Amino acid sequence: MGAGIRNGEVLDLLSRLPRHRFVDEALASHAYEDAALPIGHGQTISQPYAVARMTEALLEPRQPHAVLEIGTGSGFQTAVLASLARRVYSVERVAALLETARRRLAELRLRNVRLRHADGALGWPEYAPFDAILVTAAPPGIPRALVQQLRIGGCMVLPMGLGTEQVLVRLIRTPNGYTPEILEPVNFVPLLSGLA
C-alpha cells in the first residue's frame, strides 16, 4: 500500500487505524488487503492505497482545518480525515450507511466529525467555505456547487469520469474559478444524487 505514497503521517495513520472495524464481520479477514470491499447498498470501502493517495493529495497544498467529505460510506475515510483535520463535515445519501458510520466513529471516540444525511452533490453550504473537500464517488464532471463551497486557495480531490474512464483530480480554487491537475487513473463508484 505504501508504493508511491510519500506522506509518512498518512502511512503511519493507515497502519494504525483498525480497518477491520469498518467492514462487515464476514469480510474482516480481507480488511487489510489492498482492495475495495463491498459495504452494502451498492457502495464500497475504498482500497487503502486510494484512501492514502487521496488524503495525501488533499494535504499537499497545506494542512486543512475544516474538511468537507462527500460520501461517508463506511466511515473509514472519515476517520482518516478526522485524525488529520480540526473539523470534518461528512455527507452521506444512504441513511443506513450513515448510521453505521456514526456508530463506528463514536466507538473510536472521534468527536470532531459532523455527519449529515443529504445529497452529497449539494455539499453542506451552511458550513462553507471549507479549506478542503474530498469526494469519494465519481461525478461525470467537476461539481460546481462544491467548488463554490471551497475557500479561495482551498483544495478539492475527487475521482471524475464515467465507467472505466475515471481519473483522480486535484483542483485548487482561485479567485476566477479553479486550477485542475490530473493525478492518475482510478475506479470508483459513481456519485449519485438524491437520498436512499
Account of the 3D structure:
This protein has a single domain (8-186), classed as 3-Layer(aba) Sandwich (Rossmann fold). The strands form 2 sheets. The protein has a 7-stranded mixed β-sheet with strand order 5-4-3-6-7-8-9. A two-stranded antiparallel sheet has the order 1-2. Strand 8 and strand 9 form a beta hairpin. It has helices at 8-16, 48-59, 76-82, 95-107, 144-148; strands spanning 37-40, 43-45, 66-70, 87-92, 113-117, 130-135, 150-162, 165-174, 177-186. Helix content is 23%, strand content 32%. The longest helix has 13 residues, at 95-107. The N and C termini lie far apart (32 Å). By secondary structure, it is α/β, with parallel strands linked by helices. The protein is built from 5 helices and 9 strands.
Secondary-structure map:
Layout lengths: L7 H9 L20 E4 L2 E3 L2 H12 L6 E5 L5 H7 L4 E6 L2 H13 L5 E5 L12 E6 L8 H5 L1 E13 L2 E10 L2 E10 L10
